Amino acid sequence: MGAYRIAVLPGDGIGKEVTRGAIEVLQAIATRFNHQFEFQYGLIGGEAIDRAGTPLPTETLDMCRQSDAVLLGAVGGPKWDGNPPHLRPEKGLLAIRKEMNLFANLRPVKFYASLADSSPLKADIIQDVDFVIVRELTGGLYFGKPSGRRVENGEETVVDTLLYKREEMTRIITVAFELASKRKKKVTSVDKANVLESSRMWREIAEEVAKEFPDVELEHMLVDNAAMQLIRYPKQFDVIVTENMFGDILSDEASMLTGSLGMLPSASLSTTGPSLYEPIHGSAPDIAGKNKANPIATILSSAMMLRLSFGLHEEANAIERAVQQVLTSGYRTADVAKKGQRVVSTKEMVDEIKAAI
Ligand code: NAI
Ligand code: MG
């Protein structure tokens, strides 16, 4: 077996710290299972703006396209907040998603018994929660044109556009059904069909796709209700499929079911090239550079990479088991620690997970 080529884009802020941790864990896997991972590094986001004058340099994109999979940290920070739209770090993220056709963002939300006391929610609500948010990632409100400000009849006006092609809706909803058919066989399609025409078409397409999966139950839910149901009774969900921005917001909300944003991994899948794996959190400028960030979201993202891009199931399980074991042993980064618990650094957490592997 040849080496797996992994393009690593640490990005900004804690992105650097958490990707370093995930790479060390992957190296531990390589040693234990006798694999070879070849890591190549690229610039994206704020640092790319500073050093290459653009949030997504061509060299980065080329390197990613030639890799077997991409591991990304996070981008952004206050330093670039005042930049014009084309020189914002997040532009790099949106661009790589679009350029690599990473349309299917899978965000598993899983309850960890040992973290039951880290969630602000009651244990009996979050116990056994196990669902996946399938977020459309290359269309919808974050990409639609026109987008921008203009003056109309002397009045300052601004527009963003929620735009989808039928095919874009069909393929993401199909991903959700395929996933549900291997799980608990239920898809909750989340939209705002009482108001938005785009959502009414989304709903129609969901009904059409559902016909091809007779063993999977389809339920429609309005996004505002979904936000409430996630807190009221999250166990009802198996697979949630939704538009780009709705999925962005609902998944941050869902992270609280596990205790922290620092716990949620994600996979951004393409059917035409390599896929990308990243934590759902951002660059966390408030804790960046302090060796405090929770690396688990990124480490679990690398496990998803092993499973979904390389078919290394046993190796992915080994990472997930190691994370479980370390949490069960009581190791906590600050974000998931309760009063009185001993807090470990990013690096200590990584070392413990490596040791468990
Ligand atoms: P954020 O996700 O970076 O942080 C939100 C809060 O969660 C902060 O208090 C942070 O300390 C905490 N947090 C996040 N990840 C953590 C981890 N691994 N361990 C411990 N605590 C963690 O979102 P925020 O603050 O709204 O945005 C900061 C910057 O990140 C902005 O520039 C934003 O545009 C960017 N961003 C980038 C994303 C990406 O690269 N995928 C996603 C979201 C935001
Ligand atoms: Mg987000």
Can you offer a commentary on this structure?
By secondary structure, the protein is α/β, with parallel strands linked by helices. The chain has 2 domains: 1-105 and 264-357, Isopropylmalate Dehydrogenase (3-Layer(aba) Sandwich), CATH 3.40.718; 119-258, Isopropylmalate Dehydrogenase. It contains 12 helices and 12 strands. It has helices at residues 14-33, 46-52, 58-65, 89-99, 123-126, 166-181, 197-211, 223-232, 244-258, 296-308, 313-328, 346-356; strands at residues 4-11, 37-41, 69-74, 104-110, 130-136, 140-152, 155-163, 186-191, 217-222, 239-242, 267-269, 275-277. The chain has a 10-stranded mixed beta sheet, with helices on both faces. A two-stranded antiparallel sheet has the order 6-7. Helix 1 crosses helix 10 and helix 8 (223-232) runs parallel beside helix 9. It is globular. The model has no long low-confidence stretch (mean pLDDT 96). The structure holds 1,4-dihydronicotinamide adenine dinucleotide (NAI) and magnesium ion. 1,4-dihydronicotinamide adenine dinucleotide (NAI) binds at residues 14, 18, 74-77, 90, 93, 261-262, 281-287, 293-294, 297, 335.
Fold blueprint:
Elements: E1 4-11, H1 14-33, E2 37-41, H2 46-52, H3 58-65, E3 69-74, H4 89-99, E4 104-110, H5 123-126, E5 130-136, E6 140-152, E7 155-163, H6 166-181, E8 186-191, H7 197-211, E9 217-222, H8 223-232, E10 239-242, H9 244-258, E11 267-269, E12 275-277, H10 296-308, H11 313-328, H12 346-356
Parallel strand pairs: 1-2, 1-3, 3-12, 5-10, 8-9, 8-10
Antiparallel strand pairs: 4-5, 4-11, 6-7, 11-12
This protein binds 1,4-dihydronicotinamide adenine dinucleotide and magnesium ion.
1,4-dihydronicotinamide adenine dinucleotide binds at residues 14, 18, 74-77, 90, 93, 261-262, 281-287, 293-294, 297, 335.
